[in-house]
Request: fold
Amino acid sequence: MNKANDKITEQLKKHNNVLLYKRELYECYKKRDKTIKAIYIISPKKGKTAIEQILRTIDKKSETKNKTISKLLEEITEKSKDTQTHIYLDHFEQLSKRELSYYKELSQIQSIQIIANIREDEEVIEPEFLNHFIIIDKNGFNDNRYQSVNITYSLLLLLSLLVFITFIRVQLSILHYLVNALWFTLLMYRTFYYITR
Reply:
């Protein structure tokens, strides 16, 4: 773990964002350089709450109530000019398109570095955004995860085909009864017609 912390520290001194893979990020957060302001965010899904926490980390006197996220981000940009801040962001794979824009904006601020950790290979993070990170732990991490085959659509297509075949089968059996009933009705009509003549 010490080696990883040394690598993280080295990259942070170069003002790079850092990406870890399946690490205990909270342990890295506890062993950080205490002279630099830092915040640990357990999940990017916290949205506005996380942005408010980041602003309060930079400036404890900041008022965050009744402010939009864009206003909070403006204040973070303005107040972080002279203050170096590290954002430790766990469960980075949970980043949605909505939160992605916030963290993209934060990563553009010169005095803020993001240390992110991917715990699972569930969701795909926008590849362009990953290019802004130095990957410390390539152990098992696949840079080209976004190019992997997504079998979800194949399974949905297969399931849809199965439902279609079942529906056709049921309809054909019902159609068979309808044809038989129609044939019987025509035979009865012909018989009644013959008798009444």
